[in-house]
User: Which sequence fits this backbone?
């Protein structure tokens, strides 16, 4: 097997914080914007990342990446990160390899970008042989991972269906594989009928309502680009219905992979630090992270089938090509299904949820709900999220303090979240403390609690200086009407004069079951 990571060498190799606000390449907020993803979710889920050889700097480099973008720490010490060999133990680790170290950094950074609340288990195989990498996949599943990201592949061969049975047939587990970086043509294990084959796109900002546009990563003349095509050996899974290939068709879905529109990665093992990466090694962990955001796969099902039942929850990619072929859709972007991009790219998480009755995992969805990780996962006006003792938190040291200035002022606090379609209840709670200098109970300064869905804003409640009282009061709202949707929760505080009113929020939660 060979990894599918591509690193740009034309520029950006030695970015320093003093030179620009952010490293070159797309970061977590870009990916969330492009694919309409929530900034929270996945709490308690574990994504396994399988690679060959050791990256001695994996945990330290991951820490730099997450700190740069304000993501919560993910370390061995806090129980979020584990690095294991293919047998599931901490020693002996395989020999180190700088090329695979770059691949490892890319994978860890992408699952972090998409699902910052997820735990991560890195499994490092002894070699690039399919027997070692496949053993690592089996170990990941045996350790309880429901999402396994793989960014490597090799030529198809007649033994692959045997390898399928040995290593990749894991119902109830989302196993993602990169489709390859060599243009039109099929590689294995992406060709396995049991996994989600992930193709690649070129992702650019645009003036469309979405704000982004995508095309097939590649050229009609072939060469470097996403893999795609018709398997020579794998039977067609029941959820695929395209007519130009009687066997398994690659890909199923896709995400950004073009190095020219690549992602920011931090890697220091015989590497300079911040770099721009691409390849379908980027798209495969992105999709694994989105599966984790979507919720636990349904037992005895193959998550590769889920997008086929939710086609409207994907962005269709209908332009570009990665080569030439007899059945044009196998190498050309077309409306609906095509080989290079599959059914399309994520539009929220709904396409990656099983949606079966009883499959909802009872969980709290908001990230950093008590603000103890500072501004991580929230969008807020400067200084709203703070640990100022003048307005003590209800618990911990941090809270969200809106308004309270000596002049008219407006503050906002928001977080995007996806409520799984398989759940039947969704309840928002938060604790609010209000104090004011206003001399009477006539409402002057207000706090609006809102839900944003597309261009529609719904106000759940309005509080004012008239609600001022000592201590915190808990408020609760039924969000069941938003089940199956990606929404933004927003608090807007408006102070109208120099008389201060402070709205202090703490210990938020969005519980689903």
Assistant:
């Amino acid at each position: 097997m060979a990894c599918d990571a591509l690193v740009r060498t034309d520029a950006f190799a030695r970015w320093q914080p003093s030179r620009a606000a952010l490293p070159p390449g797309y970061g977590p907020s870009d990916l969330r914007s492009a694919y309409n993803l929530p900034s929270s979710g996945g709490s308690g889920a574990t994504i396994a990342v399988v690679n060959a050889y050791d990256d001695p700097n994996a945990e330290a480099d991951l820490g730099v990446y997450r700190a740069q973008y304000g993501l919560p720490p993910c370390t061995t010490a806090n129980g979020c990160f584990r690095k294991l060999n293919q047998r599931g133990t901490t020693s002996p680790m395989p020999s180190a390899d700088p090329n695979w170290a770059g691949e490892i950094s890319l994978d860890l950074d992408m699952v972090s970008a998409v699902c910052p609340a997820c735990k991560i288990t890195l499994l490092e195989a002894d070699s690039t042989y399919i027997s070692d990498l496949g053993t690592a996949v089996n170990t990941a599943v045996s350790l309880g991972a429901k999402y396994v990201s793989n960014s490597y592949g090799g030529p198809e061969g007649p033994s692959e269906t045997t390898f399928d049975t040995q290593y990749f047939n894991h119902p109830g587990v989302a196993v993602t594989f990169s489709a390859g970086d060599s243009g039109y043509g099929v590689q294995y294990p992406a060709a396995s009928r049991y996994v989600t084959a992930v193709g690649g796109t070129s992702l650019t900002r645009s003036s469309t309502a979405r704000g982004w546009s995508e095309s097939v990563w590649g050229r009609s003349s072939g060469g470097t680009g996403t893999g795609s095509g018709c398997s020579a050996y794998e039977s067609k899974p029941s959820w695929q219905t395209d007519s130009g290939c009687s066997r398994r068709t690659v890909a199923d879905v896709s995400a950004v992979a073009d190095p020219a529109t690549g992602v920011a990665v931090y890697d220091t093992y015989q590497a300079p630090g911040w770099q721009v990466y691409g390849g379908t090694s980027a798209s495969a962990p992105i999709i694994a992270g989105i599966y984790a955001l979507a919720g636990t796969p349904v037992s005895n099902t193959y998550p590769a089938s889920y997008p086929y039942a939710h086609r409207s929850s994907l962005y269709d990619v209908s332009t570009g090509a990665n080569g030439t072929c007899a059945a044009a859709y196998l190498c050309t972007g077309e409306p609906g299904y095509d080989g290079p991009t599959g059914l399309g790219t994520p539009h929220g998480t709904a396409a990656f949820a099983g949606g079966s009755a009883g499959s909802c995992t009872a969980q709290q969805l908001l990230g950093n709900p008590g603000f103890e990780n500072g501004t991580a996962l929230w969008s807020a006006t400067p200084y709203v999220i703070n640990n100022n003792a003048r307005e003590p938190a209800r618990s911990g040291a941090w809270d969200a303090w809106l308004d309270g200035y000596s002049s008219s002022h407006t503050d906002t606090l928001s977080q995007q979240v996806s409520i799984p379609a398989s759940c039947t209840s969704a309840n928002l709670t938060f604790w609010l403390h209000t104090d004011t200098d206003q001399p009477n109970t006539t409402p002057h300064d207000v706090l609006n609690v809102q839900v944003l869905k597309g261009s529609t804003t719904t106000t759940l409640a309005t509080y004012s200086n008239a609600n001022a009282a000592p201590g915190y009061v808990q408020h609760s709202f039924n969000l069941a009407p938003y089940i199956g949707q990606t929404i933004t929760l927003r608090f807007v505080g408006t102070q109208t004069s120099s008389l201060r009113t402070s709205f202090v929020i703490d210990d938020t939660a969005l519980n689903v079951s």
Summary: The CA atoms of residues 293 and 313 lie 14 Å apart. The chain has a mean pLDDT of 94. Residues 98-114 form the longest helix (17 residues).
